[in-house]
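Cont'd.
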Amino acid sequence: MSRDELRELVIAELGRIAPEYDAASIDPNADLRDVLDIDSLDFQNFLSAVHKKTGINVPERDYGKLATLNSALAYLAKSSN
Amino acid sequence: MYEFRMPSLGADMEAGMLVEWLKHPGDAVQRGDIVAVVETDKGAIEIEIFVKGTMGKQLVQLGATVPVGTPLALIEGVPEEVARPTRAAAPVAPAVVAPPPQVRRPSPQAELRASPAARKRAEERGIALSAIIGTGPDGAILLRDVEQAGTAPVRRGLDLGKMRLAIAAAMARSKREIPHYYLATEIDMSAAQAWLEKTNAPRTPEERLLASVLTLKATALAARKFPVFNGSYDPTTGFVPSDKIHIGVAIAIRGGGLVSPAIHDCDTLALDVLMAKLRDLAARAREGHLRSSELSDATMTVSSLGDRGVESLYGVIYPPQVAIVGFGRPTRRPVAEGDKVEIRSLITATLGADHRVSDGHSGSLFLREIAARLQEPEKL
C-alpha cells in the first residue's frame, strides 16, 4: 500500500470515528486523541479497522508511536513494507 | 389480550413518538422481539416485547407522540394470567387505568410534503414519513424515496438539545431527592494491567480487552455480595434489590450528551463477551440506536472517564437506581511498600450512593471488594 493510500485510509477511518472533524486538516503533529477527542475504545476501533484493511497488527506496546497523524502514518508506512 | 404499551425508558421520559412498526397484524411475536421503533430524547429506540403471541390491532398511528403507558397495539393469544398479572396476596387490586391514547393531531405525517403515491406506499409499509429523506422539490418525499427507505428504514439520529433537557430533568430530580454520600479509594491496577498486557499481546486489535471491562466486571461481581447498591428506590415502597445485575454504562455522546444503557447480567459474562457488548453498545449509543430494555433495565451505573480523563469522578445517581461507581484515569504514583517506595499504577474508584438505602460503612466494604477483585484479574 502506497503512502498516499495509507494516508487516505487513516483519514477516512479517523473521520468515521470523529465525523465532526475534518481529519485531513488537523495539525499532523498534534496528539490525535486530544485533537479528535477520541477515547481508548475509539482508538481500538481505529486500529481494528486499520488491521482489517491493511493486515497491519499494531501491538499495544506501540500505541504511543501512533500518537499523531504524522507518526501514525510513518509507523504504518514502515510496517506495510 | 395483552396491551403492548409505550414503555418508560428512564426517569426522564414522559412520551415518545412512534416512528416504525417492525411487526404487523398477524405476525407471530416472541419474547425479546423488536416490535416498534420509538423516537425519544435518547435517539430512536427499538422497543422489545416480553410476551409470546400474535400481533393484533395497532392502536397508535405512525408519527404520533404518546405518553408513557399508552397502549400501542394489542397482542393476541397471550394467556390471561400473563396478560393481566395479579398479585395473589392482594385482595382487591385497584384497577390500573391506562392513560387514554392521546394521539396529537395534526401529526408530523400531515405536515410533511409527500406525493400521494409515496404517502400511500409509506402507510402500506408501516414507515413514518418523518423517517424518510425526501429527494423531490423542496424535499418532498417521492415514491422512490419510500421504496429506498425499505432498505434503510429509519433516519436515526440524536437531538442533543433534547438529550440535554432529559439529562437536566433526571439529574435535577436526583440531586433534589437522593441524599448522596460519596466515598473514594485508590486501587492498585498493577496486576490488572500486567494481566491485560499478557492477554492482549497475542491478540489482534479487535480481540483486545480494555481495562474498563475489568473494572466493570469487578464491580458487577462485588454487587452480588452487596445487593444494597443494586436495585431501585421508590419513595412510597422503599428499596427493592435486584436479583439481576444489569450495569448501566455511562457513554459520552460526541458533541455533548450522555446515555447509560445497560449491559444485562454483567456479573455472568465472560470478559470477551463483555468487551464485545461494550463495543456494540457504545457504537449504537452514539448512533442513537438503542433497545428499550437497555434504557430501562439498569440496576446500577458505572462511569469511567477512561485513560485520558480526570483522576477521579463523583457521579450523580440515575433515579431510581441507588448507586453509581466511578473510575478515573490510571496514574503512576509512588507507593510505600514496607520500607521501599515503588511506582505503581493506581486508579481512583468512587462510590456515590443513596443514604436512604445504605451507609458509608457498607459503601467502603463494597469499594474494598471491587479492589480485591481487581487484584485477581484472571478470576474475573
